[in-house]
Amino acid sequence: MAGLLRFRFYFLLIFSATCLNLVHGRCLPKNQHVALFIFGYSLFDPGNNNYFNTFVRANYWPYGEQFFKYSTGRFTDGRIIPDFIAEYANLPLIPPYLQSINHQFTYGVNFASGAAGALAETNQGFVKDLKTQLSYFKDAEKLMRQKVGDAEAKTLFSKAVYLISIGANDYVSPFTVNSTFYHTFSKQEYVKMVIGNLTDTIKEIYKKGGRKFGLFNMGTLGCIPTMKALVPGNTGACFEEATELGKLHNAALSEALQELEIKLVGLKLAKHDFNMSTSERLNNPQKYSFKEVNIGCCGSGPYRGIFSCGGKRGGAEFELCSNPSDYWYFDSSHISEKTQKLLAELIWSGSPNITGPYNLKQLFEA
Ligand SMILES: *[C@@H]1O[C@H](CO)[C@@H](O)[C@H](O)[C@H]1NC(C)=O
Ligand SMILES: *[C@@H]1O[C@H](CO)[C@@H](O)[C@H](O)[C@H]1NC(C)=O
Ligand SMILES: *[C@@H]1O[C@H](CO)[C@@H](O)[C@H](O)[C@H]1NC(C)=O
Ligand SMILES: *[C@@H]1O[C@H](CO)[C@@H](O)[C@H](O)[C@H]1NC(C)=O
């Protein structure tokens, strides 16, 4: 028995020492992996906001409790969609770009920043907006070329998958509703700018070799607790202005992406329909074993729609539910880990009517 254990020990030692690419306890052939680069806002932020001065953070209890047992800066009780995608793709957790200056980009890196928008004006001063995230990506690409040479870097960036989820904050940030910038434009003009900045980003990544993109439309924005709480009298109704902007955005996005698919040769898109995936589940909560889809698990005020979870921003008072996985929303505006996982599965392997023309699994295999 002891001999067998010793044998196993030495075997593992030799095995790990010779494995150049040990991921989740499995040895994968070197350079066989596809890297994952992530852009966006809080839905995808693994903790970038911890590394610069902002009040938009989630690096304190009870964020992260369900999975990490400490708060990483993720705006939920556990893992976020990119964590699940990385797991399904046999990649390690993709780290926040701002975490370290000693970068290793071979598995990819995450640039997403909580509260960021596609427009520089959205939550300006508190976030790293899409353009800043793109400039980080360009720095990373340059560094990689210096490190491994043009040819290997080109292979890495052209095989990589790029996830971009952006735009919600341009429409639903409580600051947006009253901002003078927003009111300078018609809704159509405003949406056009958001889409223009998103497609510009895709084009820039394409120029650096990127071909495979995971992209997302908007769900019913007006129904998130923080938006519902803006409706006078808190009647239970959704905040129509936000939903309206979401509809305009989705129509314009769909058109813009169709154009890109024609213009950019070799482009492969996984377009996930958040509107469809979320409305089907929000309308049938029992079927997906949710007990509460209207109120956040953690927060205060109507629908727990005030961003007070953790008690770090002014008022220390907040309420916390006992079982976050009964809830669709973890806090005033962020979905729970259970919801994140459910959506990640649909993004990874959903049928073309929900994630298409490719799903992420196919993009990683392509
Ligand atoms: C917007 O401004 C109105 C009028 O000043 C105010 O009542 C409302 O609370 C503000 N909304 C937000 C989200 O700040
Ligand atoms: C990007 O957003 C800015 C405002 O931040 C706007 O002036 C510009 O026109 C937008 N770009 C496109 C291509 O729409
Ligand atoms: C979501 O889909 C429904 C059904 O197709 C549609 O009526 C609604 O306008 C869509 N909402 C958004 C925000 O795109
Ligand atoms: C999407 O396609 C799948 C498989 O073809 C089907 O089972 C499902 O009902 C479709 N969903 C919707 C909302 O159309």
From TrEMBL:
Is Signal a UniProt keyword of this protein? yes
Tell me which InterPro entries the record gives: GDSL, GLIP1-5/GLL25, SGNH_hydro_sf, SGNH_plant_lipase-like
Q: Which UniProt keywords apply?
A: Signal
Q: Which Gene3D superfamilies match?
A: SGNH hydrolase
Pfam families linked to this entry: Lipase_GDSL
Which GO terms of the molecular function aspect are on file?
lipase activity
Tree of life domain: Eukaryota
Q: Where is the signal peptide?
A: 1-25
Family the UniProt entry places it in: Belongs to the 'GDSL' lipolytic enzyme family.
Q: Which protein are we looking at?
A: Lipase, GDSL
